[in-house]
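Structure tokens please, single chain.
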Amino acid sequence: MDGQSEEISVTKLLRQWGEGSKEALDQLTSLVHSDLRQLARRRLRLLPPDSSIQATALVNELYLRLVDAGRVDWQDRTHFFAISARLMRHIAADSARFHGRAKRGGGWQKIALEDSDIPSSNRGPDVLALDEALDRLAKIDERKASVVEMRFFAGLSNAEIAEVLNVSIDTVKRDWTFAKLWLAREIRT
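Here you go.
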């Protein structure tokens, strides 16, 4: 199946699932599973080796949260992966919170942002610091926080992000530049 056919198929299945079709969800799951595992592996590479969450667990938890989310007005494959990115962010933060509590506040998982082009100090900020900073950014500018989620957590291109947000690619680039600098400052403080 070529990329465009897969896009159409995923979009069709997403809309059917949004209308309540369990069969569409089953088909969709098999169609996007390998992409989600690849996305999860990329994101988990940014966590330290002793991280308590694995790609399979991340994808399984993602499926549970997607099913629990109820009916969503899915736009297309890119929208699905944008939502998945946001959920993966929350799952990673929840895992870090749980792991931190288990160690009575110690050993929070660090996330290396070097690969993401977000300027940071030599030691990567932890998942919780990034999650909290993104929450603060969302209160100031939801779109800029969404750009970070889609680019950092889902690996979407500027063009895909522009499509989801219904803005120009140049706007996405400006948002990304601002968000990288803003997050670097917030995480360092």
